[in-house]
Amino acid sequence: MGFMTLGSFVFFTGLVGVITYALTRRDDHCTLDGYFLAGRTLTGGFIAGSLMLTNLSTEQLVGLNGSAFTDGISVMAWEVIAAMSLVVMALFFLPRYLRSGIATVPQFLEERFDERTRSITSLIFIFAYAIILLPIILYTGATGLTGILDVKALTGIQSDTVILWLAVWMIGIIGSLYAIFGGLRTVAVSDTINGFGLLVGGVMIAVFGLWAVNSDGIFAAWETLKEAHPEKFNSLGSKDQSVPASTLFTGVLLLNLFYWTTNQQIIQRTFGASNLKEGQKGVLFAGILKVLAPMILVLPGIIAYHLYSDTGILPDHAYGTLVSNVLPPWLAGFFAAVMVGAILSSFNSGLNSTATLFSLGVYQHWVKPGASEEQVIKSGKAFGIIIALFAMTTAPLLASQPSIFGYLQKMNGLYFIPIFSVMLIGMLTKRVPAMAANIALIIGFAAIAAGYWFPPVTNLVSGIHEFHYLGVVFASLLVLMLIIGAVKPRETAWVHEHSGDVDLTPWKFAKPMGFGIVIFVVGLYLYFADFSAL
User: Fold this and answer.
1) HSE of 5 in the Cβ direction (CA atoms, 13 Å)?
2) Environment class of residue 223 by beta-carbon count within 10 Å: exposed (0-12), middle (13-18) or buried (19+)?
3) What is the residue-averaged pLDDT of the chain?
4) CA–CA distance from 489 to each of 110, 120, 482, 484, 486 (Å)?
5) C-alpha–C-alpha distance, residues 354 and 122, integer Å
6) Is the overall model pTM greater than 0.90, yes or no?
């Protein structure tokens, strides 16, 4: 690796750290609102940038481009349907969250149901983030980074295993410093800076990649790709692909809705909005960016297929190979730094949310109910360190997974579906009791786990696509809770009180912008749809 590549990598990485420190060094990190909710001062720009970069990490860059390498443009579903989910978040969920003045999703469920619901949800979230999310972020981050930078030449280490462990621990330690000692505002500011760099760098990779396909220009290259691989440009996936068209309305839709409306790691920054208007601006701006995301997260995978499919390259190595081959050295270093920022963003956001859930949902309620704010924050930091060390230790063990993005979506279903079903019933009904929610959380988690790993159940549902199975479980949980609510309803109807923490005046352009996003997504699907392939 040349000096220019290394120099630009170190420079940009250091620059982000310096700017973030300068902007956040006077922040309040000693109170619960200051540490966990950025003092409720986040504006639309910071919310949009943080939402995007928390999501747009290497499990997306590496994993989704790897899926596009195999299946083509149909995998854009994970991005463009996310834009529609963000519209639902801005118009339906966010006003209700801000009305409650909460810091965590389980807090809302406690307000709607009871303390036991909050405890079960907190434990499910903590388990999922510690066992599933954080190790995957570290593994994909290390894989993507070592694919862009010639780490073997830099260090003289020839063992892929040793390099993977070193990269995982470097990323984990830096990310932990941001999350554990900086609080939510530090995470949001660094996210926004890195997010701008990632968008610029991602577009550059797509442009340089197209030039590598056809030197006559990007439009000529686009036509070359479509003529050479027409099967890669159908928005409707076939039944043997990772995102069959029929799953758009079952598991894919449900996973996206949960991710963008109920996932603590993602939506925590919206809880820190200064008011509903700024929160809606940030969420909908993020929705616009998600519509454009396939240029960064799908197109490079198709380009890599065109350039390298005959070399035997693994799908999850396609993106790193493309970046290292098409970018000039100084840009390769810049983009490696941006990727580290993206990795850190997802990791420190997940770690910050895990610490928040533990300190507010477990420590403050179970371990030491009368704890001071300082003790609660210290408990979150200590727990964050433990979880970070666990994630750094287990991440390299994921190297045996054939498709890391597919593995992530499968594992997400374990907790996405039961929590989302309970949240939806909680918001849409007034009489369904806490008992119904608690039963649904436990049964839902157990049913999905059994469908994945318990042979009698896996054999029974073997003819059903995994995403359809998630849809069946989701619908069953809704029916179960409604039946319990009809048989044994709450004594009094739930009333959603306003906490008074933020102004709930909506943004006047929220509905028009949301409608425009939905129309664009539908049009995009129809433009690339080839129904004959189904």
Assistant:
1) 16
2) middle
3) 83
4) 17, 21, 9, 7, 6
5) 9
6) no
Q: What does 490-530 look like in DSSP terms, one character per residue?
A: -SS-------SSSB-PPPTTHHHHHHHHHHHHHHHHHHH--
One-letter amino acid for residue 377 of the chain: I
Reading the block at residue 264, the tokens are 């603590």
What helix, strand, coil percent values describe the chain, rounded to 5?
Answer: 80, 0, 20
Instruction: Please enumerate in sequence order all residues whose Cβ is within 8 A of that of 353, keeping only pairs 6 or more positions apart, or say none.
Output: 104, 125, 129, 264, 265, 268
Q: How far is CA 482 from the centre of its chain?
A: 30
Identity of the amino acid at 232: K
Query: 275: helix, coil or strand?
Result: strand
Pick from 401, 345, 528, 509: nearest CA to 132: 401
Q: Is the pLDDT of residue 1 over 50?
A: no
For residue 483, the Cα-to-chain-centroid distance in whole angstroms is 33
Q: Please state the φ and ψ torsions of residue 203, each to the nearest 5 degrees.
A: -65, -40
Mean pLDDT of all residues in 503-531: 93
* CA–CA gap between residue 271 and residue 268 (Å, rounded): 5
CA quadruple 506, 509, 514, 517: dihedral sign: negative
* Pick from 82, 56, 25: nearest CA to 347: 56
- Both tokens assigned to 470: 């998630």
Tokens coding 530? 């080839």
Would you kindly state where each structural domain of the chain is located, as residue ranges? 3-398
Structure token digits, residue 262: 């109920």
pLDDT of residue 38 exceeding 60, the answer is no
* Token reading at 10: 């170190």
Percent residues over pLDDT 90 in the chain = 36
Residues sharing a CB contact under 8 Å with residue 528, sequence separation 6 or more, in sequence order:
73, 233, 234, 235
Cα–Cα nearest to 107, from 360, 442, 354 = 360
Strand partners, 273: 42
Per-residue pLDDT tens over the stretch 181-202: 655 556 666 666 776 777 788 8
Closest CA to 323 of 290, 296, 292: 296
> What confidence category does residue 207 fall into, taking pLDDT thresholds of 50, 70 and 90?
very high
Taking CA atoms, 209 is separated from 172, 292, 298, in Å, by 30, 17, 12
- The CATH code for residues 3-398 is 1.20.1730.10
Neighbours of 219 (CB within 10 A): 10
Both tokens assigned to 402: 């054939």
Q: What are phi and psi of 42, to 5 degrees?
A: -75, 135
How far does Cα 87 stand from its chain's mean position?
16
Kindly provide the b/e burial profile for residues 273-292, where b requires at least 16 CB atoms within 10 angstroms of the residue's own CB.
bbbbbbbbbbbbbbbbbbbb
Taking the CA atoms of residue 269, residue 273, residue 277 and residue 278 in that order, the dihedral angle to the nearest 10 degrees is -70
Task: Tell me the CA distances in angstroms from 21 to 4, 194, 493, one per residue in order.
Answer: 26, 14, 47
C-alpha torsion angle, residues 275, 22, 104, 424 (rounded to 10)? 60
8 A C-beta contact, residue 346 and residue 138: no
Nearest alpha-carbon partner for 346 in 63, 3, 67? 63
